[in-house]
Amino acid sequence: MQVTVNPQYSAADINAAITAVSASSVGGTVWFDDGVYQPIIPLVPKNRVALRGLTPQNSPSGDPLGAVIQAAHTGHIFSYQGVIGGKSDIGIYDLFLDGNNQAANGINLYRFQGARIQRVNVARVVGPYGMNFDNDVATHNSYTADVLDCYVNKGASGSCYRTGANQVKFTRAISDGGNYSLTIDEDAGNCSSVDGHFEGAEIAAIFVNSSTGTNRLIGNLVSMTKNSAQQQIGILLGSLQGVTPETSNTVQGNVIAYGGIPQEQAWGIYLENSLVKENSILGNIIRGFAIAINCNGTGNDLTANIITGSTTTPSRGILLNGDNNSVLGGSIRLPVPQSGSPYVLVQPWTTGNTVEHVKQL
After folding, report:
1. 120 close to 98: Cβ distance less than 8 angstroms
2. CB 80 within 8 A of CB 108
3. With a cut of 70, which residues of the chain have pLDDT below it?
4. What is the DSSP string of 249-318?
5. What's the burial of 63, exposed, middle or buried (CB within 10 Å: 0-12/13-18/19+)?
6. Cβ atoms 205, 235 nearer than 8 A
7. ∠250-213-46 over CA atoms, to 5°?
């Protein structure tokens, strides 16, 4: 079933069209004609319905194009709340979501089982997230979303992208702003970010926080540019209140760069505490931080990372504060080295750490 809506439709009319398509025998598509829509209530995706703008959002951009959903309310622009055990074959494509400095999240999916978000741009939202994929913590029944070629521009708060659900895959996601670019949060697991481009985060670009593990961060470009006095981290693996282990993640082939003048707590990759363990940090290129890799974790594999320190601030390559970690291969170049074992510092109170074949350039 195919239905086309235009900017003259009210939010209630658009939601009625979505419901009608979902109720049909085969589902279908609701097409959004070009123009500016100003819904006064959230739009509600439904099972077996693809929501598509007629004009493709050809490149991730903060410039409105094609069908623009400009919120005239303070809720989420698209909001889905499924039922326990229900299905949710949801699709949202080629739409520009303008929060108009009043809407909460651009997309908020809760209790979903199947979603695809592609070429969707989000700007001017004021809630905690640009896009949020959430789990029911009691039933853990939210999973499987593909987020492709999307863009979020967010003010200095919250996270541009966030998942608390399993099997959410971000491919070529782009963001600017936020406290965090991407958060893989408590209860999420087996998620990934591949070939993303994350800039302008205030605290950390990618934050993996007490997830259930087995996440993959591969080939992302992270750029930290603010000359901030607060802690700034490219990729952070953390354990919520030091209780839930963060394990078995792969951080591989990312380029993590600091373009400003780094403060003492500007770190490329940070493994927060002893419960961050048995993760693989492989073949990353890390440039311009005060400390490239700060490892408080246990039993992590740090292999073949290419490190260049800041040209303006005394810097260190790798700092090992935890036990049983392995540093193998790679290279470290420090234009302005810190004093005292600046390339790899293994703290004397630790045990079981090994450092082999690291080139000091």
Report:
1. no
2. yes
3. 59, 85-87, 137-141, 227-229, 241-242
4. -EEES-EEEE-S---TTEEEEEE-STTEES-EEES-EEES-SEEEEE--BS-EEES-EEE--SSS-BEEE
5. exposed
6. yes
7. 110
For 227-271, what is each residue's pLDDT tens digit? 666 788 999 999 876 677 889 999 999 999 998 777 888 999 999
Show the CA angle centred on residue 197, arms to residues 196 and 201, nearest 5°.
120
Q: The tokens of 54 are what?
A: 């007629």
Q: Are 333 and 359 in contact (CB under 8 A)?
A: no
Tally helices (H) and strands (E) across the chain. Answer: 1, 38
Q: Are residues 353 and 327 in contact, defined by beta-carbon separation less than 8 angstroms? A: yes
3 state SS of 350: coil
How many C-beta atoms surround the C-beta of residue 155 within 10 A? 15
Element holding 20 (H helix, E strand): helix 11-23
| Residue listed under structure tokens 């990312």 | 254
Alpha-carbon gap, residue 190 to 243, rounded angstroms: 20
Residue 241, classed as helix, strand or coil, is: helix
Q: Cα dist. 7→31, 33, 117, 124 in Å?
A: 11, 7, 22, 20
The residues, ordered by sequence, that sit 6+ positions from 190 with a Cβ below 8 Å of its Cβ are: 166, 167, 212, 214, 215
Residue labelled with tokens 């005239």: 72
- Per DSSP (E only), the strands in 138-212 are 143-148, 151-154, 159-163, 166-171, 174-177, 180-184, 192-194, 197-199, 204-209
Helix, strand or coil, per DSSP, at residue 360: strand
Between CA 345 and CA 264 the distance in angstroms is 16
Do residues 42 and 75 make contact, with C-beta atoms less than 8 angstroms apart?
Answer: yes
pLDDT one-digit tens code per residue, 300-312: 999 999 999 999 8
